[in-house]
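Intended use. Records like the one below are meant for learning the mapping from a protein sequence to its folded structure. Do not use them to infer anything beyond what is encoded.
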Amino acid sequence: MKKICLVIIVMFFITNSFAQSKFNCEIRPRFEYRNGYKSLRDSLTKPAYITSQRSRVKFSFEKDNISTFISIQDARIWGEVKSKDDIASTLLYEAWAEIKLKQSMAIKVGRQELKYDDERLLSINNWNNVGATHDVAMIKYKKSDFQAHLGLAYNNDIDKSFESNYPVKYYKSLSYLWLSYKLNKNLKTSVISIADGNQKDKNEKILYVRSTSGGNINYKNDTIGLYADLSGYYQAGKDIKGNDVNAYFFSAKAGYYLTKNVDVFVATDYFSGNDETNTENKKNNAFSNLYGIGHRFLGFMDYFTEIDKNTSGGGLSDYYCQLNYKLNSNFSTSLAYHNFQLTGKLIDKTDTVNVTTLNKQLGSEIDFSINYKINENANVQFGYSTFFATKSLSVIKGGDFEKYANWGWIMLTIKL
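Structure written out for the chain above:
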């Protein structure tokens, strides 16, 4: 920890000695009241009161056609260690360099955030205090309204001379191609194809590769106050257990500005799932959202951040609507309602007499949030959510669906 503090001090003086350099910092504490957040309550649980904090320092340097960026991060729960203990919780969050080969082309190499489209598949997961970065080599191309990114990654847990077991519960390899084109001022489209390879458990000779491909269409017309989004992806190849994959996802969203300060939208997200009653089907039909965002969609209470795991492979549909109100440039609020259902068929394992399937209805959620901009460097957010579960969700995730589940939070973000 002392070495990291020394590095930060040195970097601070270096950034101030170069004209094309910047030093920034972020402090983000968040207090939460958890009484059914992520997991259903039961008769023995009591509410938790948690304060977490993310602290980041960022350094950027530019010279000629080269730019670099370094971000050091500390993410912790208040009180998790004694203040006198020097336990490492600080890590290198980002460290990359970008070289411009031509005016339209560049190479970017190192640990970096990957954020594409609405972040369904590759996301920075900003709500999570740790966030998400990848060790990637990327080729970037941009000309006029067209962009293209090609990314490649191959992971190892240690420095080695020969290939060996990769024990980390993460992808072994990752490659993707993203293309984006702005057709006009109102319409933008993009396509992406991702291949992630996962090593067979304790067997470095076998790599299971899964492919996910699809696209997005985004429309926004400020003149008539209308906006809409469409996206869809197909998944094939092998999952992390070596099963054949045949899964898909699609979403649709349409919104309208009732006034310049008020807009409302309706939307649906659909993740395919398995049919456990079909014993002849050996393929995995449960769509995985890969390394995508786990908070912005599917309710703020985070019951479904990893779709295939959180639904036991049963898939998920979310039919939701949201009302947004923006008083001015400093104050805004939103109210959302979600209805969650299984898309596949899961056998009710609590029924030991007959073979029955779970009711597809999982529950509903209401999210309310307020955002207030104190000044250019400080922002405070508040939220309250409640979840109304069904028996099916209790069977899948545990807990008592009859117990009232709610969650509240307040977060201060300071960026300098």
